[in-house]
Amino acid sequence: xxxxxxxxxxxxxxxxxxxxxxxxxxxxxxxxxxxxxxxxxxxxxxxxxxxxxxxxxxxxxxxxxxxxxxxxxxxxxxxxxxxxxxxxxxxxxxxxxxxxxxxxxxxxxxxxxxxxxxxxxxxxxxxxxxxxxxxxxxxxxxxxxxxxxxxxxxxxxxxxxxxxxxxxxxxxxxx
Length: 175
Ligand SMILES: [Zn+2]
Fold this sequence. Notes:
With 175 residues, the chain is of the alpha+beta class. The protein has one domain (6-166). It has helices at 6-15, 20-34, 125-129, 134-143, 149-166, and strands spanning 44-48, 54-59, 66-73, 87-88, 95-96, 101-106, 115-120. A hairpin with an 8-residue loop joins strand 6 and strand 7 (115-120). Helix 1 (6-15) packs antiparallel against helix 2. The chain is globular, with a radius of gyration of 16 Å. The structure holds zinc ion. Residues 89, 91-92, 94, 119-120, 125, 128 line the site of zinc ion (ZN).
């Protein structure tokens, strides 16, 4: 992903169609902690508000950068057992136990449709496909997958591109 400093992120927020109070909150959070040191290996980055359950998702599967507001729901409950259910992330295809399973809902500004996907509760999909997390190791043994990291990264990118088209997102103008 292209590197964004606090000011560029602020500009990006300014241009977005979020409610003003939400923009201020995200700007504050980003100024204190959440911007990563290295942006190279990131296709998907969540900047959350203080609750951690809603925020802005930055997506950059290829050249263009997209931003979309999202809301996270952390309990995926099995309707028959009533227990938290394990999922496979719709972005990075990582198996996640109920404790780190979530669903993410997008209400894109230009679309009337709300779209929901299953996802890693930490939305750290860029790290999971690079096999740098414990969750990635657990997932690989659960799913018995033998794909290379490169193939996983390619799969994450192609999924993001498909969802971007589905949500009818338009790229942010360059900063
Ligand atoms: Zn994921």
